[in-house]
Write a structure and sequence with these properties.
This protein is α+β, with helices and mostly antiparallel strands. The chain is built from eight helices and twelve strands. Helix 2 packs antiparallel against helix 3 and helix 6 crosses helix 8. The structure holds dinuclear copper ion. Dinuclear copper ion binds next to loops.
Length: 334
């Protein structure tokens, strides 16, 4: 019986993992922190499965070997008493050992999630209803972007987490565990992405009606690609070249858009919404809701409340020409 349950305990996690692949799976690990957590999960699941099977086996055994009703229920049977205290004592000891083991291994594994390193890439993340503000600081150079974190492969990334309005939670399952973003408090989380790729993340704390549409991406790149990305993000916005884009910039700066957004290199410097300096370089808009294309930018600007009801972006009255021009301008901000 023991051998059987051991075999089942090793097959069970394998079966469970069969459906756990892809860009947002805690079992499809992209770095040491995530690998540690995945192993911890499999270990805990395997032990729990073994315990469950042992309990079921004991139950089946008890039902099968059901004893006769004793003729004298109050008589003390010393042999039976001894056996019962052995079984109960053994179960209590096993429980204590298992809980102790879980506590120690969890502590050991999760300690790596807050590992410090002087050479780490430092990123500040601030949660808003319902998007992520991302700020890179390096000496006196800084730039802000949204919903997308680029990281160099193989280097520790240390993220400082804060929130503007309500509690959100940072969770990129393939890279590291969850960590909350709490107003008035700074939390931290660290991870290393060991292979290039796009890792999807999702807000993991209910934060209002669009909680489900508060996604993010971590894009792990070679150090050279990361440096190139960083340099392009540090630069101010591209000056519009063709007449439609020039008109689009004028519309953007004269309408309420500029009261909420920043486009570095122009007079728009407001911080209420995402920084749009390089909005077209990001793969999605509205925190993962739409792929960034000129068409989706136009759709979003025309009616953000239908696409993501309840978000803070108002519908701004624009003529068809203005909408066309402003989406052309936004799409040019690479
Ligand atoms: Cu932010 Cu849920």
């Amino acid at each position: 019986m023991r051998q059987e349950s051991r075999a089942a305990a090793s097959v069970l996690p394998a079966l469970l993992c069969a459906g756990c692949a892809g860009a947002q799976s805690a079992f499809d690990t992209g770095g040491a922190q995530a690998l540690g957590l995945a192993r911890l999960m499999i270990f805990i699941m395997a032990v729990c499965a073994a315990v469950w099977l042992a309990v079921m086996a004991a139950l089946a055994f008890a039902l099968w070997r059901r004893r006769q009703e004793p003729t004298q229920p109050l008589a003390i049977d010393a042999r039976r008493q001894r056996r019962m205290s052995l079984v109960v004592g053994g179960s209590v000891a096993a429980t204590v050992v298992i809980i102790g083991l879980f506590t120690v291994t969890s502590f050991w594994v999760t300690r790596s999630l807050w590992a410090g390193d002087r050479d780490a890439v430092k990123v500040d993340m601030r949660g808003y209803q319902w998007w992520w503000q991302v700020t890179y600081r390096d000496g006196n150079q800084a730039f802000t972007t949204a919903n997308e974190i680029h990281v160099p492969v193989g280097r520790l990334v240390r993220i400082r987490l804060t929130a503007d309005d309500v509690i959100h939670s940072f969770w990129v399952p393939s890279l590291t565990g969850k960590q909350d973003l709490i107003p008035g408090r700074t939390n931290e989380v660290s991870f290393v992405a060991e292979r290039p790729g796009v890792y999807r993340g999702q807000c993991a704390e209910f934060c209002g009606v669009q909680h489900a549409r508060m996604a993010m991406q971590v894009i792990a790149q070679s150090p050279q690609d990361y440096d190139a990305w960083r340099q392009s993000q540090l630069a101010p916005a591209a000056k519009p070249s063709d007449p439609e884009q020039v008109f689009g910039e004028q519309v953007f700066l004269s309408k309420p858009c500029a009261a909420c957004h920043t486009v570095r290199g122009t007079s728009a410097t407001a911080q209420l919404g995402p920084d749009l300096t390089h909005v077209a370089s990001r793969s999605t808009i509205a925190a993962g809701v739409l792929e960034t294309t000129r068409g989706s930018l136009a759709a979003w600007i025309a009616d953000p409340q239908t696409i993501k009801p309840g978000n803070n972006m108002p519908m701004v009255a624009l003529s068809p020409d203005e909408l066309n021009a402003i989406s052309a301008y936004m799409a040019s901000l690479k």
